[in-house]
Amino acid sequence: MKSLRIDAVNTDWGPPYADDLYGNAPRTYLTDASVLYRNEPDNAVQHPSTMVYLSPKRFSRATFDLYARFMESEWPAIDQKFGQREYSRFPHIIGLVYGEQERFVRLFRGQLQGRDYTIRVEPDGRIRFGAGRNGSSEEYSGLSEKIQMQGKVIYVATGEQAGLSMSQLQGYTDAQGKRLSDYFKLVEKPALNLRH
Hints:
By secondary structure, this protein is α/β, with parallel strands linked by helices.
């Protein structure tokens, strides 16, 4: 079996906010991921859970299936032995996805003050906003730090700490022309209480 490197390229900072973000991509869970998702930002000290992404460019579907069977039978014991301590660098893997992590990132592009900006929603629920076409830089947007579950809610700050307005958000679309509100429930909320 081809070796599988586990690193920042093929993992997340926490469990997925919802299973449906993977569409029809083959995947397997080693635990109930919905129980593990947290609305607060994940803390590396608390050893957040992650999916591992196997790229079709590097792994065949048959190899993915082999890893899935191995992980389902052997990983719980390995994880119990090595990965349960705080500060552990050992990953707490909760599942495998056949696809590149970047494929499951939702990008919404628009303009702010005449410049291109992107809202980036990561599979682990983190919401990033920044200049350019990929949104990898981080600037204040007034949006909640993570997707809030249940209901796939994104809070939009109001008041003195407001960032993007609801009307500005309507100008951000993905490659299919869909808006943020086509995937997520946008709810206005005073800035001081954005996390919950």
